[in-house]
Amino acid sequence: MIRFSLKCKHGHIFDSWFRSDADFGDLNGAGRVTCPDCGTSAVKKAPMAPSLSGKAEATEHPIAKLRRKIEAEADYVGDRFAAEARAIRDGDAADRPIWGQAKISDAKALHDDGIPAIPLPFGPKSKAN
Asked: pLDDT tens digit string along 41-100?
């Protein structure tokens, strides 16, 4: 099946599906293709962009790419995030990248104390649907 963008002599533009270009030609030549707005059979193909139906190149979504990088390079500390971030800053824990969850109040307190932390657009896989 192929979809054509069509235009009648009154300027109405509409789409219709045909088995082939030849099928459109036969039906249109017999006056069987009509405008749905005004009913005229004076219809021709309108200019249209080609619709390519090849395999699209798979690209990784940016958030999925970010998630994969963080999971590979940072330690997941769960709901201990705020405490672990403070321990790293104070030298009581190894300096390393971490990720996890924090209450909004704890995240604000980290910010107020100059401890860098940003929200991530995803949570742990164990809590995903």
From this structure: 999 998 776 666 666 666 778 999 999 999 999 999 999 999 999 999 999 999 999 999
Coil/strand/helix, residue 25 = helix
Decide: helix, strand or coil at residue 82.
Answer: helix
Q: How many CB atoms lie within 10 A of CB 98?
A: 20
One domain, residues 28 and 75: no
Per-residue DSSP letter, 118: -
The pLDDT confidence band at residue 101, using thresholds 50, 70 and 90, is: very high
Q: What's the one-letter identity of residue 33?
A: V
Model pTM score? 0.53
In a domain, 57, yes or no: no
Question: Per the domain annotation, does 56 fall within a domain?
Answer: no
Tell me the two tokens of residue 68. 């994969």
> Is 79 found in the same domain as 40?
no
